[in-house]
Task: structure prediction
Amino acid sequence: MKFSAAASVLALASSAFGLQLIAKSDQSDLNNVGISSIHEGAAINYFFFGTTATGEDLTYAKSNGTLSDDIGSFTAYFQIEDNIVLLTPGAPYEKYTFSDEGALQLNGSSKGFYAAKNTNDPYSYSTSEYQLLYYPSGDAPSGAVAITLYDKSAVSSSSSSSSSSSSSSAKISSTVSSTKTVSSFSNSTLPAITNYEGGAAGPAAMGSLGVLGAVALALFV
Result:
């Protein structure tokens, strides 16, 4: 019984985790910025875009596909009503998933999310800030910018891997560059050396000099 209880706790813990959502967009002031909710009515928060990659801390429950946050003494859910993305209490009815790349998906698609200003929100925050909207059919208001929402940690992990790969590529490029310098010298003096480095002709292409002779010549010239 104790083992079963412990296993259940572990399973529950692994099915829910915290995350922040950030936007990816072709528009620079919306790319890599987080979203946070702001009070717009009784127990209702609308989502707006910030200016940095820091967003609101949300909880994703993989078991039922919900996104939520605790507001005061109640739990509010990431929902969509009349194309408005909001946090509100009550039974959740949207089920979200994430792609392998970390993109937030609704009904199997990451498309449909937009950033827009001047939406006539109750407190007029949208006159100066971008509000998060959802139009799955693509019929967003004029001026709205299509965005994709990502789990920030997935994007950060991807960026780290990319940086590591770039660093390795830079080291390889540096090595190749050094080799090219020797090849340049070889081309002007000993054409056979270039063939040897390229692996096309083999050691015999070095002629009477041989490998050691070519190295010695390169060192003393």
In short: The longest helix spans residues 152-189. The two ends are 81 Å apart (CA to CA). The chain has four helices and 14 strands. The first strand starts at residue 16 and ends at 19.
